[in-house]
Specification:
The chain is of the alpha+beta class. It contains 2 helices and 9 strands; from the N terminus they run αββββββββαβ. A 5-stranded mixed beta sheet has the order 2-9-8-4-5. Strands 1-3-7-6 form a 4-stranded antiparallel beta sheet, with no helix packed on it. It is globular.
């Protein structure tokens, strides 16, 4: 004959195992194609990393920065920002990175100036930007091209999230 204690132990074990199974499951809910208001809950986090160049690499004036990403929100774009350690300013590059369907991305970055900056260190920063921050980057780039003066930004605008940062040295 089973006792009340035996049933209670089995009930507690069932609850614990059920809870563990439920919390480890991934849930994705979405509305059909063409409808508005899709809801997605998958508990995966956005990732964005620089794969090339590597940390402490020697790089030329123009370098193709490549990386990988996952779960980039539709309302965000990947940009590369160069930060010369000697200048202490942020230099967003000419445009957002080219993002492929598999999450790989690429962007050309200019590390310093032609015939200058040899041996100096620079940070290459991969960031995600919202529409407001992207507009500020584009306005800075347009003003700089119009005046042929690139003073850099003293700080990153609101709406910029840093995901990856490496230090390189200019050849």
């Amino acid at each position: 004959m089973k006792t009340a204690r035996s049933y209670a132990s089995k009930s507690i074990l069932f609850i614990v195992v059920s809870t563990m199974l439920l919390t480890s499951c991934k849930t994705e809910i979405s509305t059909p194609k063409g409808s508005s208001g899709a809801v997605k809950e998958d508990h995966q986090k956005t990732t964005l990393s620089i794969d090339h160049p590597e940390q402490n690499a020697m790089v030329p004036l123009a370098v193709t920065v490549t990386g990988s990403s996952r779960d980039i929100p539709d309302n965000r774009k990947i940009w590369i920002v160069v930060f010369p350690l000697m200048a202490n300013s942020y230099y967003p590059q000419d445009r957002s990175a080219d993002l492929q369907a598999d999450g790989k991305w690429a962007s050309v970055a200019y590390i310093g100036e032609k015939n200058k900056n040899t041996g100096e260190q620079f940070d290459i920063i991969a960031v995600l930007v919202d529409a407001n921050a992207e507009m500020q980057f584009r306005n800075y780039i347009q003003r700089s091209k119009n005046t042929n003066s690139y003073p850099g930004l003293g700080s990153l605008p609101q709406g910029v999230e840093i995901y990856s940062r490496i230090t390189v040295q200019r050849q």
